[in-house]
Amino acid sequence: MADKKGTLKAQLSVVPPQYEKQGGGQAPEAKKFTPPTPSNMIQLSAHKCAAEDCKQKPARAGFCDEHYNWFKEGLLTLEGYKAKDFDKKYHSMMRRKQQAA
Ligand SMILES: [Zn+2]
Asked: What is the 81 CA–ligand 1 centroid distance (Å)?
């Protein structure tokens, strides 16, 4: 969201200063300006890990580091949904991790 605001602010600051003299701080032309939201929406979703409820930045294949591991282990589908036997796979992964540590 911060990115989107920053872009909008940058766009508005392009409005020539004479508008401020005419409208006493109001810039009518700037109000009509509509930011190109569709492309922003796509970017926003791409900045989030594909796993449910995860707000990490994606590192690989749309997943954060941890969930990319889950995806590799077959715990998550490419869309970020849990596998049918998620619990079983999760426990076997944790067991393997503990043995490796
Ligand atoms: Zn994640």
From this structure: 11
**Which structure tokens are listed for 60?**
């690989």
DSSP 38: H
Per-residue confidence of the chain (101 residues) as pLDDT tens digits?
A: 556 665 656 555 565 555 555 555 555 555 666 665 555 444 445 689 999 889 999 999 999 999 999 999 999 999 999 999 999 999 999 999 899 87
Amino acid at 87: D
Element (H, E) at 3: helix 2-12
Structure tokens that stand for 76 in this block: 């998550």
Residue 94 Cα to ligand 1 middle (Å): 17
Report CA(58)–ligand 1 centroid distance (Å): 7
Nearest to 8 by CA among 43, 33, 26: 33
Q: Please identify every residue whose CB atom is under 5 Å from ligand 1, which is an ion.
A: 49, 51, 54, 56, 64, 67
